[in-house]
């Protein structure tokens, strides 16, 4: 049988680097026989990946759509962990996989990274309130179409496009829709996530911890290592020819617990005080506009509300049904705050 060719886009990032590490270190015999390639845009990142024995191809960035399509057409599986907001690149990947499917007469597959921010509500602005706990066995595609009809959101737009364009081209697609991701990554470039880290960096600078709005809304969470296990499981099931729901039925959640945003800020305040970094466990409520300055300056109030104030509760029922077995506990979640404080203080 021909060697399976797997392309990872976003291998220098937090998720992509950790997923690639999980696949490369896996003891699964089918993965041992695969050829892995990373598509990157920065030469220093390429050198670091080559040093780990990974094939590297260069491109100018996600807007280099012709190259993306051309490279995707040389692979059987593409794992896209780059920007979840970039709909055109996801479409170009599928076009390339469709080209390969036609030329090689072989089924091709896209594993697309997304986030549960696509399901999140807007409790601060009151533009949309959601109380549901979603299962990945629900009809998430129809729900995303409904939410898009109310308010287009780039990540959700990409999800819908991946599903629909995959079906129209005959490419099997799988969307890994993750909640808050915690823990240090295992990639060679970026080992830190975004949501909790942004709150800690702001606390480091302000000497108090912020919470956006009331902080009463809940988000699910998952450790980056458990997330890597889910990607590994999806790939090995594809390689083994095992049943794996795809396209409209191919949305997979990853979660091992949940917490309110106020509780997250309390964990940051407690560990920051214990480490002697913060003078007290003070928590201050901030507005969406203040959050867009303190947390991620390139994002406006709309994204701050979705990422740091909204509700997004999920259950990974389908993922567990196909064999996902996460290993991290709530204790690991709590321990991660001390580790993350220490890492951020090194910056």
From TrEMBL:
Which terms in the Gene Ontology molecular function aspect does this entry carry? aldehyde dehydrogenase (NAD+) activity
Q: Which InterPro entries match?
A: Epimerase_deHydtase (IPR001509), NAD(P)-bd_dom_sf (IPR036291), NAD(P)-dependent_oxidoreduct (IPR051783)
The record's Gene Ontology cellular component field reads: cytoplasm
Which PANTHER family is this protein grouped with?
Answer: NAD(P)-BINDING DOMAIN-CONTAINING PROTEIN-RELATED, PROTEIN YEEZ
What protein does this entry describe?
Answer: NAD dependent epimerase/dehydratase family protein
| Pfam families on file | Epimerase
Q: Where is the NAD-dependent epimerase/dehydratase domain?
A: 6-228
